[in-house]
Amino acid sequence: MAALALAGCVGPGDRPMSRPAPVAPKRPAARPASSQNFNDIVPPVRSQSRAVLPTLPEPILTPPDGTKAVAMGVRPGVAVAALGIERDEARAALAAFRLSCPSLVRRTDASGLTRGDDWRPACAAAPGWRDGDAPAFFARFFETAVIGDGRAFATGYYEPEIAGARDRRTGYEVPVYRRPPDLIEADLGLFAPDLKGRKLRGQAKDGKLVLYPDRAAIDGGALSGRGLELAWAADPVEFFFLQVQGSGRLRLPDGQVMRIGYDSQNGRDYVGIGKLMKDRGLLGPGQTSMQGIMAWLRANPAEGRAIMETNKSFVFFRELTGAGPIGAMGVAVTGRTSVAADPAFVPLGAPLFVSLDRPEATGLWVAQDTGGAIKGANRFDTFWGAGDEARRIAGGMSGRGQAWLLLPVGTVARLNGGGFGAGDGGATARP
């Protein structure tokens, strides 16, 4: 999933507000940094006993388009050492941060909070820093910042695995399309500076840019006969939710796995069907999780297809042969470590700490992805990896609490004209 990807986009209204926290299995220790690559990154075992903030029932408001973090107000929080960062999560976050650094020091920060050079001291030190002392790395090079009121809302996404085939055959008749060559993507920032970072997608017809076919049209055959089929899925409901997640795995008939990743989208707005179904009274108590929504869609196939087609957005894929899934920074995201965030409020590649009413999601994360439904300050989508446990956690994730963004030391004072000192005026941490 990349910019405009639909990461974790069942949406805020589509996941239950609470669910018993799963107990994660113990994992082996990470290898030394000198031999570490993507496959060596060990996701943290997040503490189930760490104290968390009480639930904040108030909605997290989405600011108007064009708003950036600096407009919401940036104030210093507590010292990083006061957050209670645990060793395993710091080790995994440091490994993910190393992957982000080459892009982090080069890219323009759409949030307006940082400059590439701000990250160079941390990125220079990261490769040689001992994993066993990872919490000290974040305490040494970062300070916390509170964006706006700091109230956070987090959902979850994962890498689904569904039945699929490379060729159309009986039982595998749902097309998985690659990116069409007539899909035009325009960078609006080239035409107006205040639109920097925003994109427009459509189709050229008679010298004009028009809307690309929506989900209903594509389901009805708008792209058939053009040789765009990358693969074929067995279940339209499972494939719909794979599109929502933005990447996934196809379990082929011979048992092999084909990995597919986001390669663009038709430019149509995303609609969270869970909220729509809830508003229509189609889902009762306990049915608003991803699993409950899928059960209703299967039990009502004709109505279910119509509901899925209210989400006009349609995702195109490419086959992945290396590490993945790939996030918006162009690097692989890590389960239980990477989050999707709105780049207008969080520099992609930045660490962040959230204290939520969901213990399994409380802790240190790294912003390495974006999502079509992930908009606004302190709005995050936590990535949980692949497998049944990841599906269960992500499908029921809905956490509220407080967020602290970790920025290079000195950033907050610079943004406020030197008016703040480190640790002044922040919210109280709940380690």
TrEMBL record:
Residues 161-318 form the Lytic transglycosylase MltA domain. It holds the Pfam family MltA. It comes from the Bacteria. The keyword Glycosyltransferase does not apply. GO terms for cellular component: outer membrane. Keywords: Cell wall biogenesis/degradation, Lyase. Residues 18-35 have a biased composition (Low complexity). It catalyses: Exolytic cleavage of the (1->4)-beta-glycosidic linkage between N-acetylmuramic acid (MurNAc) and N-acetylglucosamine (GlcNAc) residues in peptidoglycan, from either the reducing or the non-reducing ends of the peptidoglycan chains, with concomitant formation of a 1,6-anhydrobond in the MurNAc residue. This is peptidoglycan lytic exotransglycosylase.
